[in-house]
TrEMBL record:
Domain of life: Bacteria
Gene that encodes the chain: betB
Pfam families given in the database record: Aldedh
The protein's name in its UniProt record: Betaine aldehyde dehydrogenase
UniProt source species: Salipiger pallidus
Binding site for K(+) 1: I29, D95
Length: 485
């Protein structure tokens, strides 16, 4: 790719780009065409060592910097990111294949929101005073130290920023490993943080596959690991971190329910189902892929959805008229094709899509199955592609029980005009993020994260602070200290 903003080397360590061609080659493929647009190299042990050592040095200096100054650096980074939104969005589109129409509003913009939010609250992070009569306790909110961030491939800029912004605000340093499928965008985040005044080594990016992530997680100098990825990877990373008693945040997968009652506004509910299944071509962790539709409106819902799907524009992702892009990789496309085949084999009714689009790149049609039952594979497993399953139900009680009958618990949504029912249903959902008459909104002000197998901890909002800092309690005795002997 001859693109002005393309990163100039594989890694970003100690405030500058770093190359080590001894590492395995990783081809960066533009999903819309299948062409190789760049090549990076996996981090060698030498690169990993340089990154962790740089982070350790920077962290000591950064923790001693006033929180207000730390906040200013993050705020400046947010401004730079916003000013360069267009160029960063183009790069994100090359990295992920997501249409520019999306990347312009959901990636660097969301990243800069996080940098701005945590930049803004950095100097408000305080401990408390706990009176005990004459004596008292005060608490100090301290950083954890060197933290590792590991990202999935669907939102590379956003994931890097959602982890880095609160981590850095709290006085930590970070080594970040993007997914090997989308290695480019996080490097630009590192570049921008340096430009905004972050000390060399504060935010480092190293490339590689799972084993590079594994080496980072098991390094004894690392205090915390924050992973965005699948449940199987989460189990491995959590176990490795637990063996050294490290802090973790796990943002994992889901199979979230979207429950549509027959009093819902039909078009609004169809919009919700589209947002819950086809944004980023379905490659969103919180997607509401089990769409429970009350029997009274099921056929009307399906008819309207099929009609609305005609509005999907699959073209050059860099053309802003395109609103539906390819799968991120050949592998992901094949995984999704496998699920579509299973849906047909197991007796679900294919209502729309289901096919690969015959052109270069990894394109699949937006796909809708109806008459899906709870036991079908497509209703149980995370597909991570544009496959919407419609399941029908009779009663509220039944819908809630079936919605919760999954090992996952990332998100859940409800569409109804009955305000009491909306809150009653949400109160019973086993999910970290819930939506009423909406789906997939993720403002930085709101905590984000899952329950059950979907994860541990929360990103964004004030809640993230608890996951990137620790409290020291200091007991202060005002009189003499006495003892039994
Ligand atoms: P993976 O779990 O395959 O990978 C996630 C990251 O972990 C990648 O960078 C991967 O490296 C790395 N990794 C893999 N194995 C190990 C290991 N043993 N030790 C350390 N790191 C490792 O997820 P995908 O990239 O395929 O992303 C899709 C998944 O992410 C879905 O399940 C989705 O739901 C989830 N997700 C969750 C979100 C949330 O916020 N809850 C948001 C977005 C996605 P590499 O791929 O380079 O091998």
């Amino acid at each position: 790719m001859q693109y002005a903003t393309q990163p100039t080397a594989s890694h970003y360590v100690n405030g500058e780009y770093l190359e080590d061609t001894a590492g395995d080659e990783i081809a960066v493929i533009y999903p819309a065409t299948g062409e190789r647009i760049a090549t990076v190299h996996a981090a060698t042990p030498k690169v990993i060592e340089a990154a962790i050592a740089a982070a350790e040095r920077a962290q000591a200096q950064w923790a001693a910097t006033s929180p207000r100054e730390r906040g200013r650096v993050l705020t400046r980074a947010a401004q730079i990111m916003r000013e360069r939104n267009h160029a960063l969005s183009v790069l994100e589109t090359y990295d992920t294949g997501k249409p520019l129409q999306e990347t312009l509003v959901a990636d660097a913009t969301s990243g800069s929101d996080a940098l701005e939010y945590f930049g803004g609250i950095a100097n408000g992070l305080t401990g408390e005073h706990i009176p005990l009569g004459e004596d008292w306790v005060y608490t100090v909110r301290e950083p954890l130290g060197v933290c590792v961030g590991i990202g999935a491939w669907n939102y590379p800029t956003q994931i890097a920023c959602w982890k880095a912004a609160p981590a850095l605000a709290c006085g930590n340093a970070m080594v970040f490993k993007p997914s090997e499928t989308t290695p480019l965008s996080a490097l630009k985040v590192a570049e921008i943080l340096t430009e905004a005044g972050a000390p060399a080594g504060l935010f480092n990016v190293v490339q590689g596959m799972g084993e590079v992530g594994g080496a980072l997680v098991s390094d004894p100098r690392v205090a915390k690991v924050s992973l965005t990825g699948s449940v199987p990877t989460g189990r491995k990373v959590y176990a490795s971190a637990a063996s050294q008693m490290k802090h973790v945040t796990m943002e994992l997968g889901g199979k979230s329910p979207l429950v549509i009652f027959d009093d819902a506004d039909l078009d609004s509910a169809v919009s919700g189902a589209i947002n819950a299944n086809f944004y980023s071509s379905g490659q969103v962790c919180s997607n509401g892929t089990r769409v429970f539709v009350q029997k009274g409106i099921k056929e009307a819902f399906l008819a309207r959805l099929a009609e609305r799907l005609k509005g999907a524009v699959m073209g050059d992702p860099l053309d802003e008229a395109t609103n539906f892009g390819p799968m991120v990789s050949q592998r992901q496309m094949e995984i999704v094709q496998g699920y579509i085949a299973k849906g047909k084999d197991e007796g679900a009714r294919l209502v729309a899509g289901g096919n690969r689009i015959e052109r270069d790149g990894f394109w699949l049609e937006p796909t809708v199955f109806a008459d899906v039952t709870d036991d079908m594979t497509i209703a149980r497993e995370e597909i991570f592609g544009p496959v919407l399953s419609v399941l029908d139900f009779d009663t509220e009680e039944e819908a809630i029980a079936r919605a919760n009958a999954t090992e996952y618990g990332l998100a859940a949504g409800v569409f109804t005009r009955d305000i009491s029912r909306a809150h009653r249903v949400v109160a019973q959902f086993h999910a970290g993020s819930c939506f009423i008459n909406s789906y997939n909104d993720a403002p930085v002000e709101a905590p984000f994260g899952g329950v059950k197998a979907s994860g541990v901890g929360r990103e964004n909002s004030k809640a993230a602070i608890d996951h990137w800092s620790q409290l020291k309690s200091v007991y202060v005795r005002m009189g003499d200290c006495e003892a039994a002997f």
